[in-house]
Amino acid sequence: MRSPDEVLVDLRTAWTAALPDRLLGLYVHGSLVTGDFAADRSDLDVLAVLAVEPDPGLLAELGVLHADLDRRHPDWAGRVEVEYVSLDAVRDAAARRARDHLIARISPGERLHLLPATSHRLVTWSTVHDLGRALSGPPPPELLPAVDPELTRAALLDHVRDWPAWLTDMTSTPGAQAYSVLTLCRALQRLRHGRQLSKRQAAAETIAGRPEWAGLVVWARDWWYDRGRDTDAGRPAEVRDFVTRLSADLLAGERG
């Protein structure tokens, strides 16, 4: 298997050659930057900041690039998550300007597609501004606008509010269940304690601070990092209860 850095170098080379006048910056974020990256499990998370708005024509070009990347790195096929956004979209969102923008996105289990650039995306954009690593272009703070922490917090709360519905729509694989638990653990640590942690770190803090959920969080952490299988039975009822209760708890804490 090629290393993550080899894949990222290949991605940078191909994308800068194909989009020379449109690519302003290419940034890696997520567990490869913040810690706890697992080569056989973790995704490569990349944000591409563009001078243009993604549209169907650009989507077709990007589809060719991703197909070529998968061909060259079959062990990483389906594990390179890239979000394409115009700089104008990030600036408008950070300035609270309500304008319609689109992003393009490809992620594990999701084909490359266009979708609205909702305020949800501010969580990712602000994280890249603060913690992202440049593959191409200037350092993130020199290109991306800073996002008001309260605006980022509101976007994260929107995520938390939507998670129970998203879980209903997800396939009930143990992978989706473990991801849901660990993602809510990260939201808990950021909203209650102001800490941007990796999945493993957030799991450890939640296990220590919320012993009533320790058993489920240990299961989710171990499944995610110790090569759990999608043929496992999982814990769908417990996960649904955890997500519903923790979401309600975090939202009630904001209202209180």
UniProtKB/TrEMBL annotation:
InterPro entries: AadA_C, NT_sf
Molecular function GO labels: nucleotidyltransferase activity
Protein known as: Aminoglycoside adenylyltransferase domain-containing protein
A Pfam family annotated for this UniProt entry: AadA_C
Chain ranges of the Adenylyltransferase AadA C-terminal domain: 142-247
Organism, as annotated: Plantactinospora siamensis
Entry keyword set: Nucleotidyltransferase, Transferase
